[in-house]
Amino acid sequence: MSRIKRKEMINKDRTDLSLARQCKLLKVSRSSLYYVPVGFDAETLELMSEIDRIFTKFPFLAAVK
Q1: Full DSSP string of 1-65
Q2: Contacts of residue 14, Cβ cutoff 8 Å, sequence gap at least 6
Q3: Staple 30 to which of 5, 23, 40, 45, CB 3.0 to 4.6 Å?
Q4: Are the C-beta atoms of 12 and 19 separated by less than 8 Å?
């Protein structure tokens, strides 16, 4: 069974079995229950694109200390 399917089996409303115990039984990291991925805004994506463009054009500059 995949990690995603096991994670979906965890019931946060269940009171007789703690989240920690459910995670342990299903072999899912407890911290993954609370993690919310953060997206990138347009400005960050633009900056990342510019860095990639420069690095692609001048890859030898990355070796300069």
Answers
A1: --HHHHHHT--TT-SSS-HHHHHHHHT--THHHH-------HHHHHHHHHHHHHHHH-GGGGG--
A2: 22
A3: 23
A4: yes
Calpha distance 35→64 (Å, rounded): 36
Residue 8 pLDDT > 80: yes
The separation between CA 37 and the C-alpha centre of its own chain, rounded to angstroms, equals 6
Neighbours of 28 (CB within 10 A): 19
10-63 pLDDT, tens digit per residue, is 998 888 999 999 999 999 999 988 888 889 999 999 999 999 999 999 888 766
Residue type, 16: D
Q: Which two tokens stand for residue 27?
A: 């072999």
Q: Are the C-beta atoms of 9 and 28 separated by less than 8 Å?
A: no
